[in-house]
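User: Fold this, then the next.

Assistant: Folding the first:
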Amino acid sequence: MTDFGSGDAWGDSDEDLLIDHVEKYEKSRQDSHVINNHCDDDDDDKLVTPLYKFRPGYLWVSDFTRQNWCEQQMYYSFTVPTIFEENPVMTEGSNLHLARELAVHDVTQVKVTSNEDIWAVKVINLITALQTMLNGGTIVREVPVFGCPYNTDVFIVGLVDELKFDPETFTLNLSEFKTRKFRSFPSKSQQNTHQLQVMLYKKLFDDLVKGNVSKDTVARHLRLDLHKAFGDDILQTIDSKLLSSTNLSQLLDDLYTKIQCFTCVQELEIEYQHQESKDIIGKHSVTYDEDRLHHMFNDYIKFWKGKREVRGVDIEEAFKCQSCDFADICEWRKRKAEECSKRNKSKIDNS
């Protein structure tokens, strides 16, 4: 498995690492794009949507899981200055994820010199996982996936915790690993978020297997030059994998050739582990619901495209506000409280 060259392995916080490297590069390209006036009115409209204001024109699976928990909270995290404080629970969770990753493969650090190099790391890691399974390996972890689901014209990136492969039946199962501070399963709301996560992972992987993610889609959404030569470290890494690609176009060809040897993901599972004792709390099987995923995905995408206002939680899930850093300033919470007060007053007046 290949890393960016930082001191951290590509684990549970890979998206933060990718954001650090990519967003600065994308911002500079966007700024140059605007200054040189090479964009039309449609491009100007896009740049003021949440997809471009808060993200570099594409999203991570974690954006959807945060949105599923509370879209308003996610919005405030982008717009309200906050001081980051290390969360011991999250740190321990990341450490356990890293330990699981290192149990099945080593991590190699590489130096990246361009945006194309950064995305080559993603593709190399996916190819490495596929080749491991083609060679008879039964478990691969931290597997990158990406695509443009449901023809919504929004590119999504994710990192699958674990794929389990049966060489005899050639079937694939997908597993997500979650750690818990308490020796119990999470609330139903948290489980719903985890279910969305694994269903979206399956959708992204299956679309790659089906050939639904073209090179043009990758190049257009990530604004990449597929024929730009890789840096020396990336070329050395590719050579060590017994590949001969010198650019992303060739590397994506290698990826598509290998991934189409596989079937779509058959089963989805979420495994919960108690952090302190390391005991397994239990496992939940998830039934893939295409209609449910499609409906949620389309609804969430409307926010990112600026087609609807931000929403908070329903009154039935107001318990989430108790642990929210933005509860005191939340306009959604205030409006819901006022609506509830008006309804109660109306009931009293009509009684």
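Now the next one, as you asked:
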Amino acid sequence: MKPQSPRSEIARCAAEASPAGWFTAAVLSWHPNSTLDRLRQYDPFSMLIPNWRFFAPNPARYAYHLLYRTLSTSGEQSRWRPASEITVRTRTQAVWFPRRRESKAVFDLCGQFALYVSAMGEWAP
């Protein structure tokens, strides 16, 4: 076997160390302690070091169950009915859950409505 030149040895070491360095920087930047997030300053376009906190920067701490009722033309109110069903999750939904968008929409609307009502203060219907 022919000995490698110093230049090719350096290239081989760099090729091996680069993925390990990238992985280490990514894992450190995911840590909740924001001082470790300083590694992102070396990624000016925010493309090289992934930030998984993007998907849930403020995780949900509440659940909403939306109910509704109708008012007839004669002024009679119906009983309260659920607008959406809360179902138990399955293992496959960790990978594939297209109906999640519906529950996410209800969650977002309820959160915005709660902010709106709290901004209005006390009010009587």
